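User: Could you go from structure to sequence for me? I need the amino acid at each position, not a summary. Structure tokens:
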């Protein structure tokens, strides 16, 4: 029995060592499981963040595209005006109608007065009046009274043109 006594503590020590190793193995298994869990979470989050980024960029891109399309349509409307002064009026109108939708410098950098063709339109109107078989002298007198500072109208002389116009012949209907 004396041999059994020293063996018993030795067996107990071996059992204890085996239990420690089992505990170390279990601890490593838990660490591996935690690592797997972290990598699984990362593998789920990366595509999710990429999807959120894609949707966000799509929304931003659509917003910017709509903003640019709006500005182009406003510019088309402004440029469709027959005269630069009317274009300036349209630009001011759109700036007041859509505050914050158009850049502050959208129409402010153009000197519309230097491009104004209002005088040309007015002269065209004078020629249209004359083309309607109105007396050119009367049309010119009316023009000069309406626009006394118009140098162009002062230099015109329609007295000879009036003399050259032949009266319309009135033939009786057969």
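Assistant: Here is the amino acid at each position, in order:
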């Amino acid at each position: 029995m004396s041999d059994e006594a020293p063996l018993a503590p030795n067996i107990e020590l071996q059992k204890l060592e085996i239990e420690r190793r089992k505990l170390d193995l279990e601890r490593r298994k838990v660490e591996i499981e935690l690592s797997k869990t972290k990598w699984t979470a990362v593998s789920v989050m990366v595509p999710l963040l990429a999807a959120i980024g894609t949707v966000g960029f799509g929304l931003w891109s659509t917003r910017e595209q709509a903003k640019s399309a709006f500005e182009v349509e406003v510019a088309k409307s402004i440029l469709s005006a027959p005269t630069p002064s009317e274009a300036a009026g349209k630009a001011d109108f759109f700036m007041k109608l859509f505050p914050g939708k158009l850049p502050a410098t959208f129409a402010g950098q153009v000197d519309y007065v230097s491009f104004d063709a209002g005088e040309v339109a007015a002269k065209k109107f004078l020629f249209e009046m004359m083309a309607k078989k109105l007396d050119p002298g009367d049309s010119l007198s009316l023009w000069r009274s309406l626009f006394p500072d118009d140098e162009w109208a002062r230099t015109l002389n329609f007295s000879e043109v009036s003399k050259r116009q032949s009266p319309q012949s009135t033939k009786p209907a057969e």
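One structural detail worth keeping in mind: The chain has six helices and no strands.
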